[in-house]
Design brief:
This protein is mainly α. The chain is built from 19 helices and 12 strands.
Length: 481
């Protein structure tokens, strides 16, 4: 029988999740879901000095919003708990004792200052620092007050990575790594191997930065007599320039910030899944079910994946347009302008139907709808910055607006009647749609974006439209040309 697939996501509570972190968790979840296996959430909280308050709650909220559910692990339980490393200290001591008894672990008697002297000497002699070159001949018995180190067996390794292919290293990279620190907590290098073994993890997905440590991990697997799991190394997510790893200075943000800024969870999940993976087709929009059905590690690329914000916005717009009006309305509760507070649900849904095709994010809703709830303040600077309107003189602008007022005063305010009136106005003025319609739109909305002009005017209404056009004329106190 084939061993059931078991993957894990094991973040540390040392900060809020960003795109790189969550992509590893998403890919591990997809591997498990695709094969009908089990996805586990484990918390690696052994670095207490770097722990950030609130990061555990943040982690769980991120997973929940993106639909990355786990059947086993933190707060859920399971047969191989506890699933928080700080609750597993006795387990690590038991495994460490096995190494001590087999002569593969020893107490580190050196003070930090002495180890720094060893490092400084290696730097002066222009050679790599290896602790094993200073391994004490007769170390004291380990009593838990000193670091416990692994007694390595340097050798060459070759292995296959599901993403990076065949890899190999020489014995020079193997060293006597710390297993348990002097504070009693295990290091990641030791704890994750114990946890993965006890939890029967079959596939380990992690970032490129861990490749250099892999030979030391193999040395530990051998010392314990363990068969290593399957490894899959995720390529870096690159900044938009494509030349360096994405960092905070390049726009890497808290995952929840994207949601707060109006990115739909479905779109963010879709986008993150596409960072370094595709199914070999031209398809770009994937539902949760499609991702599960199509995701395989052999389609993860080796090279870095560029974070393209414009592509995220495009993808989000596609997902917004997939929602029906009732679904979209439910998502927009926190994104309406303050002036919409007293508006009816029916009116808001009418507006959503108008602007849905223009929304890139839910946050665009304020800009696209505020003038439907309140009279905007005229801003003729917008006309001067418009390529078409800046060509008009003040007299030409005033004349066009007066013609618009006269024509619209005699029109019914249905979308159909308004479109007919606007078309007739083009003939009357001899003006281009790009100029005439832009001027009317700007004068009633003072917004850089709006839906189709006839639909916009129909919703604003006849009285308000004519009032705004007249006010636009009244406030022309500077020339436009």
């Amino acid at each position: 029988m084939t061993t059931p697939v078991r993957t894990r996501f094991a973040p540390s509570p040392t900060g809020f999740l960003h795109v790189g972190n969550i992509r590893t968790g998403l890919f591990a979840w997809l591997v498990a879901q695709h094969s009908g296996g089990t996805f586990i959430l484990r918390l690696e909280d052994t670095d207490k000095k770097r722990e950030v308050e609130g990061s555990i709650a943040h982690l769980k909220e991120c997973l929940e919003i993106l639909g990355i559910d786990y059947a086993e692990g933190l707060d859920v339980g399971g047969p191989y708990g506890p699933y928080k490393q700080s609750d597993r200290l006795e387990i690590y001591r038991t495994w460490a004792q096995k190494l001590i008894e087999n002569g593969r672990a020893y107490a580190d008697p050196y003070a930090p200052e002495q180890i720094q002297e060893f490092r400084d000497l290696a730097r002066v002699e222009k050679r790599a620092f290896l602790y094993r070159n200073h391994r004490p001949e007769n170390p004291p018995a380990w009593d838990g007050t000193m670091p416990l180190r692994f007694k390595s067996d340097p050798k060459a390794y070759s292995w296959h990575d599901e993403v990076m292919g065949d890899l190999s290293t020489g014995p020079e990279v193997i060293d006597d790594i710390i297993l348990i620190k002097s504070d009693g907590y295990p290091t990641y290098n030791f704890a994750h191997i114990v946890d993965d073994a006890e939890m029967h993890i079959t596939h380990i997905l992690r970032g490129q930065e861990f490749i250099s440590s892999q030979p030391n991990y193999f040395n530990l697997y051998e010392a314990f007599g363990l068969t290593p799991p399957i490894f899959a190394t995720m390529p870096h997510i690159l900044a938009e320039s494509g030349t360096k790893k994405l960092g905070k200075r390049d726009g890497a943000k808290d995952v929840l910030d994207y949601i707060r800024e109006g990115i739909l969870p479905e779109a963010l999940t879709n986008f993150i899944a596409s960072l370094g993976w595709n199914d070999g087709t031209e398809q770009e929009i994937f539902s949760r079910e499609e991702l599960i059905a199509k995701f395989t590690l052999d389609r993860v690329q080796r090279s870095g994946a560029r974070f393209d914000k414009q592509r995220l916005l495009w993808m989000n717009g596609q997902w917004i347009r997939r929602l029906n009006i009732d679904e979209l309305y439910d998502r927009t509760i926190n994104f309406w302008p303050v002036s919409a507070a007293k508006a009816t649900e029916a009116y808001k849904k009418q507006l959503l139907a108008l602007v849905q095709d223009r929304l890139k994010t839910l946050a665009d809703l304020k800009t696209l709808t505020s003038y439907f709830f309140e009279e905007p303040t005229p801003n003729w600077q917008m006309a001067r910055e418009n390529k078409q309107l800046s060509k008009l003189s003040s007299e030409e602008t005033r004349s066009l607006l007066q013609h618009a007022i006269a024509s619209l005063s005699d029109s019914d305010f249905t979308p159909e009647a308004l479109q007919e009136a606007l078309n007739q106005l083009l003939i009357t003025t001899g003006q281009k749609p790009g100029i005439l319609f832009s001027l009317i739109r700007l004068s009633v909305s003072w917004s850089p974006f709006s839906p189709a002009l006839n639909d916009t005017l129909a919703v604003i209404g006849k009285e308000a439209t004519l009032k705004r056009l007249n006010r636009a004329i009244e406030t022309m106190n500077v020339t436009i040309s």
